[in-house]
Amino acid sequence: MRAKGSFAEYTSENGGRVLLLFLLFVLAIYEFITAGFSAFAIVCMLPVVVLVVVGAFHYRMATFWALMGINYFIQWKSFPVQGIPTSLPNEMLELLLLALAIIDVKDQHYERTANIMLIALISWAGFCTIEVLNDSCGLGINVGAWYTGARMMAFQLLYAFLIYVLYITSPKVLIQYLFVWAGLSIFASFWVWKQQHMGLTQMENAFLQGRGRTTHIINGGATIRLFSIFSDAANFGVNMAATAVAYLIFAINCKLQRLRWFFLATGLICTWGMFPSGTRTATFCLFAGFAVYIFLSKSVKIAVPVSIGFALVYFILAFTTIGNGNASIRRMRSGFNKNDASANQRTINQEVMKKYLADAPWGIGLGMGYENVPANNKFRKLATIPPDSEYVFIWIRTGPVGLTVFLLTTAVMFAGACWIVLFRIDNKSLRGIGAGLCSAFVSIQLGGYANQVLMQFPNCLLFYGGLSLVYVLPHIEKEWVEMEEREYAKQEERKRLKLEKKRASRV
Asked: What is the pLDDT of residues 273-285, one digit of tens each?
């Protein structure tokens, strides 16, 4: 007879759980000894992952919002989760959300995924899958390196599309999404203000004095390029410019006052936020985004003042010295200098790359970097030379063939979104949201042309996901119009009551 409360009695009643925990403990110790702390930490987090999965079944939209937050903060130098691959939390949540969508078939709008953007993304992902066979470096097929490259360059684009289309399915969720995106962007702008006026954290300062010293401390230490909660200043500046474009366009077209003022404030805050980054490309991203909007607006009343405003800004930056007392403005203005040493060095580097790639039309292979290509290899130079651009990075890894496929698929999905904005959406404010998302997509693409930011966090999910939303807008237009009419009626009623109260006070 077993003694009451004995270990034997406990294990007989809870044997499965005890055995599972014991096996996890043994696995964690084994991974710590053989693979180090990172693998140990991942095993220790498995019970937490199980709890997250169980919770996700009950709170699916909470999981989506968690993805938004983690995607935005994962590059923050002060982010509490360290020692694990940067993309792991994002990828786990994305796959979890897709699994939940597959399990709950009846509540999903799968028909909305059937569009030209999905075809373009599948084409690009298919090409990147074929790249697993690329052995230009003569080192054999490296599936691990290939998958690391493919999921960052192709699969995460497909994940972003599917998650946005399947989870942002109504005007209510769309507005919530725009508020969350705005809130995250405003926090990033606040944090760069905090870095300016209150200093850097210990981790941020360590980055600035270490890896970021040559690119973020310039002009002999007179100018410090700030990066907020992002990986670096270029990533931050380009993101702020593209976000500013989106929200300023939302504000121009919005019918509801409370939303219009909020969007306008967000756009102006993000416009200010891009300047402390000292990222010259950000200025061009802003111009490019509004140039696209002038085309999509189909309105002379909008096109003329926007064109005049940005022509004036261009003239001030390119042909005057107004604002030169501000280091950030001086830095932005240098982008118009054709003799800039940094731009010339990039041109020289690309000429070197072109000679090597003549022998590698399919590139050196996805995931192939300095840690994969040995020093005596013919393509070692390509694996180590700074690409300074997302497009150049893709060119090196997939060659002229891959870059052509990427450009074609990008053009197709963008053209499809523009077609929807121009011809399939009748409501002005909803068309403004579509135009803002298309314009922001062009802004981030231009940023990717000049800096390696296109596939960085949080840009990929925000802007590829944002473009996929354009394909959803025609499906929710009827609900949007009904919602807008209700809110507009309330807005007009509040105005009427306020006017009556004002008149009564005069009597």
From this structure: 998 888 888 888 9
